[in-house]
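Attaching the record inline, Q. Sequence:
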Amino acid sequence: MTQHEDLIAALSGAQQPLIADDTMAEAGRKVLLGELIKMLQHEAGSRTGEDIEDVHDMRVAIRRMRSALRLLEPYFKQKAIAPYSRGLRKIAQTLGTVRDLDVQIDDLEKYAAERPDEERAALEKAAALLRGRRDKARERLVGAFDRAAYGRFVKAFGVFLTTPGKGARGDSDRDEIQPVRLRHILPEMIYRHLGSVRAYEEVLPEADLLTLHALRIEFKRLRYVVSLFGEVLGSNAEGFIEEMKLIQDHLGRLNDMSVAQDHLNDLIGDFSRSDDADVQEALQTYIATLEAQKTALRAGVPAMWQRFNTKKVQRQLALAVAGL
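Structure, as predicted:
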């Protein structure tokens, strides 16, 4: 039986379509509910590890919820949403350890498969060490899922997201006309995040890896805003999201390689014995390969940036927003 099967069914039955006339609080409640359902649907697979994408997908759902909660802070009472922000952060941290090891192992195994037999055998020693660490990390993850506090958290969050008006801020001044609906607020929210992305144009030619990582985060925030509320933006938003995904994935791969190099340098230290010299040499070769790939990816950033900023791509967003 799938974990939380009854809860997933109840939450799914409570889902309502997103509409442009929703208040921001209720629009946010709807998108958060959809992401909570996705999170719970991937919990069973995250426990077993049979498909590493379950941990990834569960983590993405949590990231989207955390991003949505940040966007929705002006529309909910702080004390109403703070416990859910904290709960999601704790789950994300535990999932993140497993996911990082999943990615390291998968990349290492793919690289090793293309290497000569002797080098592949040395890399298998490193992969085995990482798999042992992942097994321990997954035990901690399952332990976190099994805690009563986690069960209470998901049930309470489900109640919050299926109770219209719960925790929402009231009008501060009923005599003052204020934008309160999704169609009033979403355009400004989208273009504010787009502005944060496009601000990097001036520094992009000389941008170092830290700057590109920061740009990736801004792209992620923009993508979350557009995709979370994509139901009311129509098909033009889908094309814009795909274009964002291309450059975000490009920047993400660049960042992943930098992180992997750091982890691999640490891993070399775990094979410091003289009879592990073959492992150290194989890992150093792998690090050099990643460095060459990083250089190629860095060189490709300007072209990706130019594509994203074409009138064709930006018009897709403009048409989607105009439809509100």
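The chain is about 75% helix and 0% strand. The mean pLDDT is 93.

More tomorrow.
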